[in-house]
Amino acid sequence: MPADGRASTIQAASAPLAWSGILPTKDVLLAFGPYFLLATLEGLLQAATLALTALGLSLVFGVMRVVNVAHGEFYMLGAVTAWYVTTMIGLPPAVGFFVALIVSPLLVGAVAYGGERLILKRLNYNPESTIVATIGMLYIIQQSVLLIYGPDARPVAAPFYYRIQLPWFGYSAYNLFVIAAAVVMLLVVWFVLTRTRIGLVMRATQLDAEMAQAFGIPIEKVYAFVFTAGAMLAAIAAVLIVPIRQAHYLMGLDPLLLSFIVVIIGGLGSIRGTIVAALLIGLSDGIISVFFSPTLAKMISTLLVALVLVFKPEGLFGAKAR
Hints:
Elements: H1 3-18, H2 25-64, H3 71-88, H4 93-120, H5 127-149, E1 163-165, E2 170-172, H6 173-195, H7 197-207, H8 209-214, H9 219-241, H10 253-266, H11 271-291, H12 294-311
Antiparallel strand pairs: 1-2
């Protein structure tokens, strides 16, 4: 069910109970509990996929100093590829899904690698030029998918359908799987960045690209790897969420805008800030959408960005410019 429909349904059901003032305080709290739990779970679901998507955007900016406006289209391309894989191979939904979870990021990564080599590298990663270039990449990917895939939104079957009984209601086990899978992916990224040689090279390039190059680090190869990895993270997030949403050629816009909000609040290039901001935005969006309205949730997110830009321009965990 879409977020607006879910929110209105829950509000309609809860309003006469929780806010009428007829029930005693204890009953009000008991009525409030199920909706708060549901809102928290929905918020965690959004935060999990948003953290993966925004982390890819943050990595690209942090290491390359490139604002990748096409990041949302890599997300969309991952979802559309998942639909093609699960539909065309004719295997059971669970097998098709896990094949898509491998094939989709690889295909999206190949597209991102080609764009980085053919376009961004030729522009010498100039910040202003790459913004215009990635806008061009956005339209090329979007219109190509529209021509091949079409304008219709199409569902992708979940790998399994099972409900886990919680204290007040049953909840989709697949939704919980998405949250767990996103946490595992975030831990893998953290391990790579902090415990491996490639992570050390990426951090050195992020701190001082010229000094890293002077020490023999091939920064152009590092840039290619980071841009590809960022796109693959977005594709993984899309494959995880598309059985809950639907694959559509315009579905990359909201993840792109939310990812920018997360990265701005958390701090450009800050992995810790990205994860914290994703949790903040995801949970607040889930809870506010259920108890008030999705529009108010988006307004509050925009207000947070404005406040951060005014009072802490580097973000909550970003490094101050020297």
